[in-house]
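Record 1 of the preview.
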Amino acid sequence: MDRSISIKMLPFASLTMLFFAKGMDKEIRPELKAVYKCLPVCYLIYYAISNLKDSKKSKDYSKKIATGLVLSVIGDACIVWPKLFIPGALAYILAHGAYASSFGWKPLFLKTGIVLYSVVLTTVSAMVTQLSTVLILAIIIYALLLTTMLWRAFARYIDSPNLWKLSALSGALLFLTSDIIFGIHLSYFQIPHAEFVIMAIYYGAQLCIALSCGEIVSLKKEA
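->
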């Protein structure tokens, strides 16, 4: 990756550390926590938009990634308040749909998709048995969109591997990891420092997906 990207990501790193330093205080007001929580991904939105170039392919990809990041920010803010968990989950569902769309649908790699859906849905089904019907439905729909996003990231990378596509795939895998940890924490047993672990992985996932916008910049420089 271009060394300049490391410099561009310094504000993201600073905002992430600010959230961990201030936003996780147990005494903090929910409104302020929402602000701290959303700031790192807001910066990634700026990064994705800054990668909009002249070509249609570049614009379409970066716009969809930016859309997914905006929807993620809405989800981040909503779930600060437990009563807004369902709207937050809906925002994340739409975010994963935007990411999946950005990764494209060709080539299909249907067998890969079937395997991923089988594994993820089996895992989710085992985790949600003790939850309410509404929550179970929301989580299953969320898992379907997350798996679709992961499937398309896999297919895109397998078709023509490069570092930027690997970044997108890594982001999808990190999303899955953070959600599995959240599911275990919610349904089975309390994980020590769960919020810190989940949010660290979550920010890593969003960073990797946002960085995949750099593919178009890299190709343009090589040309």
